[in-house]
Amino acid sequence: MAKTVAIVIQEDPTKTHRPVEALRIALGLAAGSHNITVILLDEAVRLLSEETEDIVDGEVLEKFLPSLQHLAVSFLVQDSTKYPVDQNRFRVSYVPPDAICSFVGSVDRVLVF
Prior knowledge:
The protein has helices at about 20-30, 60-70, 95-105, and strands spanning about 5-10, 35-40, 75-80, 90-95, 110. It is of the alpha/beta class and about 110 residues long. The protein has a five-stranded parallel beta sheet. Helix 1 links the parallel strand 1 and strand 2 (about 35-40). The two termini are about 25 Å apart.
């Protein structure tokens, strides 16, 4: 039975490899039968920005992004983010923090990075 899974990424991808690793995990889960939503908080939104040269493991990230796009993985981003995301390339919804909290409470599983 398919589960709804939220993957919350809150770490800064310019300081640690964990945000890119979290997207790799999201990609693996999305390739199966699970309904995946990735929540990007604070600096983690940079994972979907045009400029990835400062991101730890940015070359690995570039390999994952087309597959995340192809699988139409949903992303939730705080509506107050300062980083632009290409909404034509990714399924991104800008939502207030309370909507993110409600969403996290409604899914079957949550992974936090």
